[in-house]
Amino acid sequence: MSDAPSPRNETPEEPPQAPLIEHLIELRSRLMRAVVAILLIFLALYAFSNNIYTFVADPLMALLPPGSQMIATEVASPFLAPFKLTLVVAVFIAIPFVLHQFWAFIAPGLYENEKVLAVPLLASSVLLFYGGAAFAYYAVFPLLFDFFVHTGPENVAVMTDINQYLNFVLKLFFAFGVAFEIPIATFLLIWTGATTVESLSKKRPYIVLGCFVVGMLMTPPDIISQSLLAVPMWLLYEIGILAGRVLRGRRRKKEEADEVE
């Protein structure tokens, strides 16, 4: 009687984890590069933190009576306000590099036609965000602060706390920067097929109403700042629809060319 072969102790093969680990390592590397870039820019700008704050405060200070100045109601505000602003400016300046790291991470998984479109969209989104912040600083702030300074009672002296002012302007910078991204969002909705140009055109009255609602929620409670945000949002929405029409026309031409071939 021969001995039966003993079954081998085989363990089921584990799914390969190397690709996932490699992706996680690359993601960590990209994030670290972005953080290091922000820190380097922050260290380079920190010596000028007071000058940066002065530049941001100029739209208000230019409208105050001669001899007026801001105040600090908290002990650490003279240090923390310029520090916080410099850090935000460092992130603001590093946005192109941060997006480049993001692009380098996702690019290998994209198709060629997606790569061709993604680069202009990323560049446009950065420029539009910068444009929104610049519009807030050069167009909105002078009108807004002029309204606030000259509508108060005559016997009330305007002495703004530096920390409260910083929080106020950063909120507006972010609101206008994000609002100026509307053409990109509209174009992506049309490009991905989530909606159509005709559908967006029919919803125009609701979009205009929504722009004023967003303006009411993201700006101070006055009609000037609300309108200064809502009207550009509506115009940018129209630009997005126009870009969608151009995209649709190019798709039709390409389809007709393919049919002819």
Distance between the termini: 75 Å
| Helix content, binned percent | over 70%
Rg, nearest Å: 26 Å
Report the count of strand segments.
0
Apparent shape: flat
Mean pLDDT value: 82
Structural class comes to: mainly alpha
Low-pLDDT residue spans: 11-17
Into which percentage range does the β-strand content fall? under 5%
- The total of helices stands at 9
Order of H and E elements: HHHHHHHHH
> The biggest beta sheet, please?
none
Q: What oligomeric assembly is this protein in? A: single chain
Q: Could you explain the architecture of this structure?
A:
Helix content is 76%, strand content 0%. It contains nine helices and no strands. The protein has helices at residues 18-46, 49-61, 77-106, 112-151, 162-179, 182-191, 197-202, 204-218, 223-260.
Task: Provide a concise account of the structure shown.
The chain is mostly helical and 261 residues long. The chain is built from nine helices and no strands. The longest helix is centred in the middle third of the chain and has 40 residues, at 112-151.
Please name the defining characteristics of this protein:
flat, mainly alpha
Secondary-structure topology with pairs:
Layout: H1 18-46, H2 49-61, H3 77-106, H4 112-151, H5 162-179, H6 182-191, H7 197-202, H8 204-218, H9 223-260
Helix pairs in contact: 1-3, 2-3, 3-4, 3-5, 4-5, 6-9, 8-9
